Amino acid sequence: MLPQRRPRKKGRVEIIPMIDVMLFLLVFFIMITLQMITDKGLKLHLPTSSETKVLPHPHFVLNIVQDGSVVVKGKKMSLGELQSFLGADGDTKHTQVTIAADKMVPFKDFVQVMDVCQKAGVTGIGIAAKAT
C-alpha cells in the first residue's frame, strides 16, 4: 500500500505587500518631484542683463509687482508680514531668497525688500533678471 500524499498547495501571489511597496515608491517619487518644482512666481517683465547666472533653487521667490506690493507663493504680503514670514522659516542663515522685481518697480521698493530680508536674518539673496 502506498502512503497517502497530502494534496499539493498551489503557490499564491500575495498582493498586499506589493501594494505597500508600490505605495512607498509613489510617496517617495511625489516628495522628490515636489522639491524639483521651482516657484515660478508671477509673470513679470524682468530687467535684462548681459551677464546672468543660474542660481540654485531658492526657498522663496519674492515677487515685487508694479504697485510695490510683495507676493510670495501667491500671497500678497506687507513688509512687516514678509519679515515675520522669513523669520519663521527656522535657520534663516541657510534660507535662500530670489527677488524678482518688475522692470517698472521703483528702486526704493526693491531696496526695502532687501532690507527686510536682511533684518529677518536671510543672507542668501539672489536677484532675478533675463538674459539679453
From TrEMBL:
Keywords, sorted A to Z: Cell membrane, Membrane, Protein transport, Transmembrane, Transmembrane helix, Transport
Protein name in the entry: Biopolymer transporter ExbD
PANTHER family in the record: BIOPOLYMER TRANSPORT PROTEIN EXBD-RELATED, EXBD MEMBRANE COMPONENT OF PMF-DRIVEN MACROMOLECULE IMPORT SYSTEM
Membrane topology type: Single-pass membrane protein; Single-pass type II membrane protein
Lineage: Bacteria, Pseudomonadati, Pseudomonadota, Acidithiobacillia, Acidithiobacillales
Location in or out of the cell: Cell membrane
Record-stated family: Belongs to the ExbD/TolR family.
Residues that span the membrane, as ranges: 21-38
